[in-house]
Amino acid sequence: MKHIFMDTNVVIDFLANRQPFALHAARLFNLAVERKAIIYVSAVSYNNIYYILRQSLSNNATIKLLDNLAELVQIADVTNAIIRQSLKTDFKDYEDAIQYYCALSLAKIDFIVTRNTKDFRKSALPVLTPAEAIASMG
């Protein structure tokens, strides 16, 4: 079983049905349903996902989607140490730094899945696109 850390953009692709990205994201979540993978999402992703989804959905609908997401994934804590590490890196995007150090703090993670692999160039963990992650599971 693979342990996958999922970047916020892929989760939003799935929940918001963003085309053409939603299909690969849905396939990854299906692997979790089939118990072929465990997906981890950082706690900080929840407020970002809420913000994006809330632009097109009601508060109740958005909260319901987030609640359903919490049933599918493991929520990874964002700690003081993760925030401090993220502040001291050369990541161009601070949110990506938080995602990276959150993933790195979890010993079981096999790879990070994101559509923005270039943002994780210096990663000590493998970084795959959703399509690459699916292919690696085959």
C-alpha end-to-end distance: 12 Å
Q: What value does the average pLDDT take?
A: 96
User: What is the β-strand count?
Assistant: 5
The strand line-up of the biggest sheet is 3-2-1-4-5
**Strand-residue proportion:** 5-15%
Please tell me what the overall shape is. globular
Q: Helicity range of the residues?
A: 40-55%
Output the CATH homologous superfamily: 5'-nuclease
Q: Poorly predicted ranges (pLDDT <50, ≥5 residues)? A: none
Helix count from the secondary structure assignment: 7
CATH-assigned fold name: Rossmann fold
Gross CATH architecture: 3-Layer(aba) Sandwich
Biggest sheet layout: 5 strands, parallel
Class in CATH?
Alpha Beta
| Helix/strand/pairing category | alpha/beta
Rg estimate, integer Å: 14 Å
Provide a quick synopsis of the model.
With 138 residues, the protein is α/β, with parallel strands linked by helices. It has one domain: 5'-nuclease (Rossmann fold), CATH 3.40.50.
Which helices and strands occur, and which strands form pairs?
Blueprint: E1 2-6, H1 8-15, H2 22-33, E2 37-42, H3 43-54, H4 59-72, E3 74-76, H5 80-87, H6 94-104, E4 111-113, E5 127-128, H7 130-137
Parallel strand pairs: 1-2, 1-4, 2-3, 4-5
Helix pairs in contact: 1-2, 1-3, 2-7, 3-4, 5-6
Description:
The N and C termini lie close together (12 Å). It contains seven helices and five strands. It is globular. The chain has a five-stranded parallel sheet with strand order 3-2-1-4-5. It has 138 residues and is of the alpha/beta class. The protein has one domain: 3-Layer(aba) Sandwich (Rossmann fold), CATH 3.40.50.1010. The relative contact order is 0.21. The longest helix is centred in the middle third of the chain and has 14 residues. The mean pLDDT is 96.
